[in-house]
Amino acid sequence: MVAYVTPAPVANVLLGGLPRRGLLRTHDLVHALVFVLQPASVAFTPTFHATIPDILPDERRYAHALKLSRLTMNLENIASPALADLEPPRLLYRTPERKVMLTSGSALGLALPVGTAILALTPGSEAEFWPICLGWMTTTGLASSTILTPTGRLLRRSAGASKRPALFAAQFAL
């Protein structure tokens, strides 16, 4: 996260005067380099999975933790973007952005502590845990998406073309 927050405003100041199309082409080349270097980050997953047995020596709890870890990663990678793509745009065609964002912010503010408490108090049975966990993840993911999706539209209306890169860089840094 620090890699995003810190350089975004600085990069905008340093690169804001450059032609955007050329900057995007250069950015594509940097992404290609990242793609080549990305395998260096694969050390995380094996290290993470090697640490779990140290924390959870009981075989049953360890197996359960592995399942939860894998499911969480899969759901995050698949379900979150799908939810973000489906519901918020349809909702924004019929409801003002401000109302959508405020309602979603309130829902998220309520869902996070309530869902956390419910999950913490749920017995160890998978049959009871998973439906609650999936419902909570869906609610928080949808609320987050409906807060973030209208942001680009609001920012676009808030600044002219010359000021947009700085505005979007500032928003990105947040």
Write a structural description:
This protein is an all-alpha fold. The protein is built from 9 helices and no strands. The chain is flat, with a radius of gyration of 21 Å.
Structure summarized in a few sentences:
The protein has 174 residues and is mostly helical. It has one domain. The chain has helices at 2-5, 7-15, 20-37, 44-55, 59-94, 97-121, 126-148, 151-158, 164-173.
Question: Helices and strands in order, then pairings?
Answer:
Elements: H1 2-5, H2 7-15, H3 20-37, H4 44-55, H5 59-94, H6 97-121, H7 126-148, H8 151-158, H9 164-173
**Helix fraction?**
over 70%
Strand content: under 5%
The structural class is mainly alpha
Shape: flat
List keywords for this structure.
174 residues; 83% helix; single chain; flat; mainly alpha; 0% strand
